[in-house]
Design a protein that fits this description.
The chain has about 220 residues and is an alpha/beta fold. It has 2 domains: about 140 residues, Rossmann fold (3-Layer(aba) Sandwich), CATH 3.40.50.2300; about 60 residues, Winged helix-like DNA-binding domain superfamily/Winged helix DNA-binding domain (Arc Repressor Mutant, subunit A, Orthogonal Bundle), CATH 1.10.10. Strands 2-1-3-4-5 form a 5-stranded parallel sheet, with helices on both faces. α1 links the parallel β1 and β2. α3 runs parallel beside α4. The chain is globular and about 50 Å long. The protein starts with a strand and ends in a 5-residue tail after the last helix.
C-alpha cells in the first residue's frame, strides 16, 4: 500500500485529490495539510511514501517544506503540484528534493501512474510521452540535464556489495521486481536499497543511476 500525504491550501483541490487517490486499491491518503507547516508536522508524526506538495502555501512554502521533509527521510518522495509555471520556483523545488513537478491540470490517470512509478523508483522523465510533457513545466527537463553529479566515485559514500549488485542490475535495465526475483529479496527491500543508492550516488531517477553506473564501468 502506497501511503500518501497531501499538502494543499485550497480545500477543493485537497479533497478532490484525496478522493481520486483513495479510489485506487494500492494507495491510501494518510493525512491532508492546508499549510507547509502542517505538512511538516504531520509528516513528522506519520511519515508517508509520497507527498503531493503545493508550492505556494501559508506558514511555510512548498519548497521549504520539501527541503525539510527530504532532511527527515531518505525514502519519502515529493511530487510538486503547481498552478504556476515559474522557472525559479520549479528549480528551487527540484534542488530541495522534489522528484518531479506537475501542473495542477494534469489528468488523474497520469498523476496516479506517476505516483506508482515514483514509489517504485522507476520514474524516468526522459522517457515521458508528449502527453505527459504537456502537464509538466519544461524547465525541469533542462534542469535535470544540467544537474551534474559534483562528486567523483571515489568521493562518494562506499557502496556495499549488495548495493553494487543492485546498481549493476539497474544499469542492465532490470526492474525492481526482476532484481528482487534474482536476488531472492522482497520488492519492498529492493525499493529501499534503490532509494539509498539514489542518496549515496547523488541522483534522482533510475535513468540517472543507470548512466552513473555505465559511465564508471559498473556493469553486469
Amino acid at each position: 500500500m502506497i501511503q500518501i500525504g497531501i499538502a494543499e491550501d485550497q480545500a477543493l483541490v485537497r479533497e478532490s485529490l484525496a478522493i481520486i487517490i483513495d479510489l485506487e486499491q494500492d494507495m491510501k491518503v494518510i493525512w491532508k495539510a492546508a499549510t507547509g507547516a502542517q505538512a511538516l508536522n504531520m509528516f513528522s508524526e506519520s511519515p508517508v511514501d509520497v507527498v503531493l506538495m503545493d508550492l505556494r502555501m501559508p506558514d511555510l512554502d512548498g519548497v521549504s517544506a520539501t527541503r525539510k521533509i527530504s532532511a527527515l527521510s531518505k525514502t519519502a518522495q515529493t511530487i510538486v503540484l503547481t498552478t504556476f509555471d515559474h522557472d525559479e520556483w520549479i528549480l528551487d523545488a527540484l534542488h530541495a528534493g522534489a522528484v518531479s513537478c506537475f501542473l495542477k491540470e494534469v489528468p488523474p490517470h497520469l498523476l496516479i501512474n506517476a505516483i506508482r512509478l515514483i514509489y517504485q523508483c522507476e520514474f524516468e522523465p526522459e522517457k515521458w510521452s508528449k502527453e505527459w510533457r504537456k502537464y509538466t513545466p519544461e524547465i525541469q527537463f533542462k534542469a535535470k540535464r544540467n544537474l551534474a553529479i559534483n562528486t567523483s566515485f571515489m568521493d562518494l559514500k562506499p557502496l556495499t556489495n549488495r548495493e553494487m549488485d543492485i546498481l549493476k542490475r539497474m544499469e542492465a535495465g532490470q526492474s525492481n521486481s526482476e532484481i528482487a526475483k534474482a536476488l531472492f529479496l522482497s520488492e519492498g527491500t529492493v525499493k529501499n536499497y534503490v532509494s539509498n543508492l539514489y542518496s549515496k550516488i547523488g541522483v534522482r531517477t533510475r535513468g540517472e543511476a543507470a548512466k552513473f553506473a555505465r559511465d564508471r564501468g559498473i556493469t553486469l
